[in-house]
Amino acid sequence: MTINHRRSLANRSNALKSTGPTSLSGKRASSQNSRKHGLNSAPDYESSSEYRALVDLIAKEGFSVFACADIASGLLNYRRVMDAYYDTYTSPEPVDEFLRDVDVKASIPIFKELLSPSGSEPGDVREMAAFFADMQRLERRKGGPVSRRSADTHKLIRYQRNGIARLSRAIRQG
Amino acid sequence: MSVDHKVSSLLPFLSSPKLLPDESEAEFQSGLKSLLSELDNPSPLAVALVSQLNESLWWIKRHTVDKELLLHEAMARLLSKAGNHWDTYDNHKVSEALERYLNGRAEKDEAEWIGEILAESKLTLSDLRVRAFKDAAKHIKMVDDLIHRQHQTMRHLQRSIDSIDYKSRLIKRMDLELAALESKQPVTGALTLDDKPS
Hints:
The structure holds 2 protein chains of 2 kinds. Chain A is mostly helical.
């Protein structure tokens, strides 16, 4: 059992006791932790300079004013989805190699040591080992980097479908 | 207006498709140019749509490579488990050794090592591939869905491009018909709206 291994386990055990951020800035930062791609928020395209420039350019192609607005926002929306798609693809959730490879059974003496100062029961140690084993199972199920990026980008399919349908409809009805 | 000029006139307003660090910009651009060359005098909007179409084709290429990588990842994982190398599970060493082995570029000791693990686990290379496919089936299906989505997107884009093309031709035809009518008017002596019937 290396020192690093012991330290990593101690850090993770201590992190479990954390009650979260206390400062305002910490709370503000952690409120964005679960933000994945931001595609559920409604963007304000109409006030952007790109939108106005696009509308002017599309108007030269003989589309009505309303159609130009729909096509410009449809195009910007589609690009937003594809940019998020690229970002998700290129930065998948990293593999937690320590958790994936750690031998949970062999780590039980360390859990005992870590928990003993707080006067814990043997049940607590078992509970902690079971918790780590569950986390490890989840981590292993996610697979390697390619599996992760496939699963992550797969979640964006519906945004892409809606984005392209909106753009295509705006052009064909324009 | 040249096609290149149209690309530059519309695309600055749109974020352009990004490439991965190991991908060739020249190859991407040549794909775009060959698609654009199939259109007769495309409008800036058509150019923007063709650029999206090219990106979809590029994504299909990426996802097709991913399918092979998923299989490779699963094979490396199985190999690590089979050889009781759980501590080196899915590590680069097994993965790289397997890649070299499959490409026939493995060193003698590496090839022996992989052969040994396969023999230990009573597996042939094709057995390993079959088992890996079974293990990675869920993720391979996801990648298939992603490829299918790109095909659907391309269909939408193609219909939009056709619609723009049809619209521009219709406008041109109406202009020509109007010009023809105007030029015929003095010859036939047709009534204008201002003329009052006698």
